[in-house]
Amino acid sequence: MWAPFCPSMPRLPVAPPKPPFKPSLQLRYAPVFDFPAPRAFLWLPAIIAVTVFALLWGSGAGNARVEGAPIQPSPYGTGKAIKSGNGQEKDEFNSGLRVSPYALSILIGVLTIGLQVLLKLMSRQPPANKSHGLIREDLVWWLDWVIAAVVAFMVLALNRADDHEVMTTEQVLTLVFVFISGLTGIPTMVRNFGYDTAHDPPALRTGRGIVLPNLAGAVILLATVVAGAQLAG
Amino acid sequence: MMRFEKTFAVIATAVSVVASLRLVADFLGPSSAVLAGVGTAGLVAIASGAGLWLVGQRFIDRYAHFIELRQEYFESRGKRQKSEAVQSFQMDLDVFNTEVVPSFRDAGVERTKARMLELIDHLNLTPRDADAEREFVNRTAADESLSRGERVELIVRGVAKTADELEPATIREPPSS
User: Fold this and answer.
1) Would an 8 Å CB–CB cutoff place A189 in contact with chain B?
2) Is residue A60 a contact partner of residue A100, using CB atoms and an 8 Å limit?
3) Which of A103, A172, A210, B43 is the right S-S partner for A58, CB 3.0 to 4.6 Å?
4) β-pair partners for A89
């Protein structure tokens, strides 16, 4: 940098480039997914495929009917004929791409954790000679699912606040109760039962720290999405 | 207070899950709710299992890598050379406790034993040391007085101790049995 201004300045010795480190166990203990973090984009098609599958699974594609044929009742509501803009008759509930509540909950769950893991894969610098930097804490998904459930339900509820017929008071209260008990119970349970405290720092247990809370979070998400689908009509 | 907190946590979680399933049954019908519940449980179990396998595989590989590099380091100490490998690779005790040991626990006693025997074969130990290590692994794996988790942990810590005699040691004592 200073050389053009101080030609007499002695040049600092430049260290020769180090040869790339190649552990001898690399082949024997080859990582399962041997690709660098930026190529984690390879997961994107899989996520998109799951999304499309979930959409089509619950879509109204199977409810297409022959023009003029009687309209079958939709599983999502009472199918009734309405006039579209060009005067053609169509089924109000079967006319567009529809997603079943279960497909929607799978979609939200998979997208939430898929994108989260993908972004972590892309953003985290893996250790030397390792393909990814994921740790066990990254498998704690119940947090994201419960948060997604609460936020999604609040948005849907606010959006449909004027409609008093889509959910009964008892159902709304049950859902609020689910949120309150879930948001207080699951974190407390994980803190008390989810860690192996024999060592410092405590290690996250597989069953009680990861799988069971994930299961509880997924069930809460499922109930919320089903209720949200009902709210959204 | 602590007992109350634990009881509350279990009851609140169970109640929220049961109430969620009841809501699903309200909206979808009982048979669909059962299918949805079973499907959700299956999907979560598969996804969590796949994630645990992926992360566990990484840390088990990393552990084997660590042991091998430390062995290289101890071999090179006699030549007064510090291996670049050791400089470029570190495993601290936190990672060992929170990632490596749980990953081996997930793998189970038999897989841990097989992996350790394979690793011992690969290490450049003297025949006497290698035999002692194999004997330690086999004896610990067969020790019925310990739980499966304790056996795995003892094996992992014990083999790590083999290559962990001097600085820059980060893996310390095996648990007192």
Assistant:
1) yes
2) no
3) A103
4) A83
The yes/no answer to whether this complex scores an ipTM above 0.85 is: no
Measured in angstroms, the CA of B60 and the nearest CA of chain A are apart by 9
The sign of the dihedral angle between the CA atoms of B49, B52, B57, B60 is negative
CA distance B71 to B162: 9
In single-letter form, the type of residue at position B166 comes to L
Say if residues A233 and A112 touch (Cβ distance below 8 Å).
Answer: no
Six-digit token pair at A73?
């009742």
Mean pLDDT of chain A: 68
Residue A95 clears pLDDT 70, i.e. is over it: no
**Amino acid letter for position A91:** D
Q: Which amino acid is at A57?
A: W
Cβ atoms of A115 and A107 closer than 8 Å = no
Interface of B with A in 108-137 (CB under 8 A): 122
Map residue A67 onto helix, strand or coil. Answer: coil
pLDDT reading at B120 higher than 80: yes
Query: What does pTM read for this prediction?
Result: 0.66
Q: What mean pLDDT comes out for the span A79-92?
A: 49
